[in-house]
Amino acid sequence: MAKEIWDEYVSLYNIDDRTVVLVLAGESKKIDSEALVRLPHYVRRKKSNRVVVFKGKDSVDAETICEEYGLDVDIYEVPIAELREIYRYYTFAFNLDNIVFTFLEECPYNYMGRILNETDITEDEAVCLGLYCLRKLPGEMENV
Q: What pLDDT is stored for residue 112 in this prediction?
């Protein structure tokens, strides 16, 4: 079922291998917000020509954050159950390198929630270094 959902999203939202896809899980508004704020650094590193953001109805106000930071992204509200299905599919069978998820606890192989709870790593550091695999910490981002 997840593959069919993803294939439908690819067709409906015109996703290709040059599109960065950010999935906002809505589990942590701080993580979702930081993911949006740091998104331009990830997009630049991926040399992407387009950004699609999927969010559930309980996620942050992505539209306002993107407007505030001047981010040019396409934002779509979709059922969170579909995003969970895509995430489970992604963790086992996906080969698209330009998709990231802000789920913290959804999968047993996802340790971001545990790291945030058990260490002194901030949400910003988790997004920059863990989610986006950027090479520098916040404050050192000018040339990333």
A: 79
